[in-house]
Amino acid sequence: MSSTFSGDETAPFFGFLGAAAALVFSCMGAAYGTAKSGVGVASMGVMRPELVMKSIVPVVMAGVLGIYGLIIAVIISTGINPKAKSYYLFDGYAHLSSGLACGLAGLSAGMAIGIVGDAGGQCTAAKVVCGHDSDPYFR
């Protein structure tokens, strides 16, 4: 390796792995949430077309998760410049763990948004009482 490199030579691998994990897992969650919520939108469009715009909200929320992962991936990757400052294994592991935290949170949020968006869309289309509507405390 070049003599101008300062820090650990394997540390950038872990940093870029964290950036990739943030982007990939967040986009997987966004894709799952969008696809699963799309089923709710389709059932709403068949049963009650006048309420389709209400069921678009989970699709938009799921799509935003991919943007969050992209933002974190850009922040992590711009912080990896071993020629500008020393980049040690601690920095690489910190970027890996932050990328995994963002990515896995985006994946789980996308799954939750997809499941709830699908169920909510189908319940609204079928005029079934779901969630807090059945609780007299919230009326």
- Biggest pleated-sheet summary: none
Give the mean pLDDT.
Answer: 87
Q: From the helix content, strand content and strand pairing, which structural class follows?
A: mainly alpha
**Domains counted in the coordinates: how many?**
1
Unreliable stretches: none
Estimated helix fraction: 55-70%
The rough form would be described as: rod-shaped
Counting DSSP H or I runs of 4 or more residues, the number of helices is: 3
Give the total of beta strands.
0
Distance between the termini: 68 Å
Radius of gyration: 21 Å
Explained architecture:
The chain is an all-alpha fold. It has one domain (26-130). Helices cover 70% and strands 0% of the residues. The protein is built from 3 helices and no strands. Helix 1 runs antiparallel to helix 2 and helix 2 (57-78) packs antiparallel against helix 3 (89-126). The chain starts with 10 loop residues before the first helix and ends in a 13-residue tail after the last helix. The mean pLDDT is 87.
Summarize the model shown:
With 139 residues, the chain is mostly helical. It is 70% helix and 0% strand. The chain is built from 3 helices and no strands.
Write the layout of secondary structure elements.
Blueprint: H1 11-47, H2 57-78, H3 89-126
Transmembrane segments: 12-35, 56-80, 92-117
InterPro entries: ATPase_proteolipid_c-like_dom, ATPase_proteolipid_csu, ATPase_proteolipid_su_C_euk, F/V-ATP_Csub_sf
Function: Proton-conducting pore forming subunit of the membrane integral V0 complex of vacuolar ATPase. V-ATPase is responsible for acidifying a variety of intracellular compartments in eukaryotic cells.
